[in-house]
Amino acid sequence: MNTSRQSAVRPGARGTERSAARRAELIAIGRWLFADTSYDSGGIGFDAEVHALRDGAREAIVATIAEGAYGRTGIAPLARMGLLSWVCGVEGAALARIDRGELPRETLRDLLVKTLGGAMRAIEELDPAYPAPVPARRGA
Known about the structure:
Distance between the termini: 49 Å
Largest sheet: none
Shape: elongated
């Protein structure tokens, strides 16, 4: 309950022509300073070394899941892409949770485990040579 007698509408920023000019100058300086850095080329995620680390981690996760699910790390492109899409979805969901905090950690964990099962069932449906493990089957 708001017991304040002040207006709910906040006043706009107060500034003089001088402060507006200084702000514009600082923005221009910032653009000039960072024109040839990662800010203009996509941020830290654009860096080739960062890409290599990220891609290596993704491949290691896919290989680990494949070893546990199929008994081998060398898998067909369809199975690899299905598992990789799940890994990338986990990254996105984790970042969204950090940003928004809408789901409790345990709920997100359960959702991601179930979507892994769904990805494995889809892989099996499209390529029966890669059957979903028993825990990933419906009703298991």
